[in-house]
């Protein structure tokens, strides 16, 4: 099993930390892992993306041109990365702020209204964990036990009191994700 993922959105949406939690969780589960962030100098408000590869086998290169899964959180990222999903792959997006929805017919497309739900719950800081939960429902490549360990490893100790809130957000995301188009 190898899963090649791109997570892309605005800086400040938790794109890089979502990738880091996934990567740490994979390491804790004895998987081979690659985590490669990319962001502009402005960070918060600018575009950011991270490539995460989780595999049972050695990873030959962290640089990819095509992905099994794309998690898209803004329009610029949709424009840039929709075409990079491998045929038969998955695109997950939050429709908040998206003006042109995905159009490809050779991939499965899912939406998750994480920004809206995080706002309703008053938990804007866990928006990214809601999205992560949606992804993990579709692709349970790491178990919740290891996600917990990944949260412990990636969050500073002073924020460990927020781990239960993050785990709750993951569960919310699992319930929130909706298929727009599936290939099955």
Structure description:
The protein is 36% helix and 27% strand. By secondary structure, the chain is of the alpha/beta class. The chain has one domain (2-181): Pyruvate-ferredoxin Oxidoreductase, domain 3, CATH 3.40.920.10. A 7-stranded mixed beta sheet has the order 2-3-1-4-5-6-7, with helices on both faces. The radius of gyration is 15 Å and the shape is globular. The mean pLDDT is 92.
Low-confidence stretches: none
Mean pLDDT across all residues, rounded? 92
Strand order of the largest sheet: 2-3-1-4-5-6-7
In what range is the share of β-strand residues? 25-35%
Give the name of the CATH architecture: 3-Layer(aba) Sandwich
> What is the CATH superfamily classification?
Pyruvate-ferredoxin oxidoreductase, PFOR, domain III
CATH topology: Pyruvate-ferredoxin Oxidoreductase, domain 3
How many structural domains are formed by the residues? 1
Q: How many E strands? A: 7
In the CATH hierarchy, what is the class?
Alpha Beta
Largest sheet: 7 strands, mixed
Number of helical regions: 6
Silhouette: globular
Structural class: alpha/beta
Radius of gyration using CA atoms only: 15 Å
Provide the succession of SSEs.
EHEEEHEEHHHHE
